[in-house]
Amino acid sequence: MSEIWDLYDRDRNPLGVTHVRGHYLPKGTYHIAVGIWTVNSKNEVLLTLRSPLKRDWPNVWENTAGSLLHGESSREGAVRELREETGIKVSENELHFLGTERGRSVIGDCYIVRNDTDINDIVFQEGETCDAKWVTIPELDKMIADGLVASPVARRLKKIRKDFESFIYGKEENNE
Questions:
Q1: What's the predicted TM-score (pTM) here?
Q2: Residues near 116 by Cβ (< 8 Å), separated by ≥ 6?
Q3: Coil, strand or helix: which one is 1?
Q4: Strand, coil or helix: 31
Q5: Which pLDDT score is estimated for 156?
Q6: CA distance 52 to 147
Q7: Domains in the chain, ordered, with CATH?
Q8: What is the DSSP string of 91-153?
């Protein structure tokens, strides 16, 4: 079944039209995507391995992410994506907002959440994810330097790094 997205203008105003994933977006329109960084009580970051079946960036590591479905809020989509791709269940109020980035055709909201799910309890979404691991921040940085993390993920992390580390190391002030 195809995903249906709501479309927005560059300022995030709803256009009142939907779009089927996989077709070219009309020029000047955007859909909303979410990225979720999951961090455990040891300050390790959860990474999932993209399925070898993925067209873009197969077999590289990433944080949980995906596009909002028709009618979803950003937080609803983040909760759903985290559950679908990892099996981790959180509530909307557990998500801490880190920022928004606008790309060529996407408006991306980034969240971070604390969760201590055992790595053996991670559930993979067929065609999306096929492995998972907890890594320290230095391990994450090395993986990025070695090209083992999807380049868009590394680029987005760089933009929100200050708030990302503030959350991890105990200064959790940014909770939109």
A1: 0.92
A2: 40, 41
A3: coil
A4: strand
A5: 93
A6: 16
A7: 32-168 (3.90.79.10)
A8: -GGG-EEEEEEE-SSEEEEEEEEE----GGG--PPTTTEEEEEEE-HHHHHHHHHTT-B-HHH
Both tokens of 55, joined, read 């067209």
**How high is the pLDDT of residue 48?**
97
CA distance 91 to 118: 18
pLDDT the model gives residue 1: 64
Q: Which residues of the chain have pLDDT under 70?
A: 1, 171-176
- Cα→Cα distances 141→56, 134, 156, Å: 21, 13, 13
- Containing 77, the helix (H) or strand (E) segment is helix 74-86
DSSP H or E stretch at residue 7: strand 4-8
Give the CA distances from residue 12 to residues 44, 70, 148, in Å, rounded to whole numbers and listed in that order. Answer: 33, 15, 32
Q: What's the CA gap between 133 and 140, in Å, rounded?
A: 11
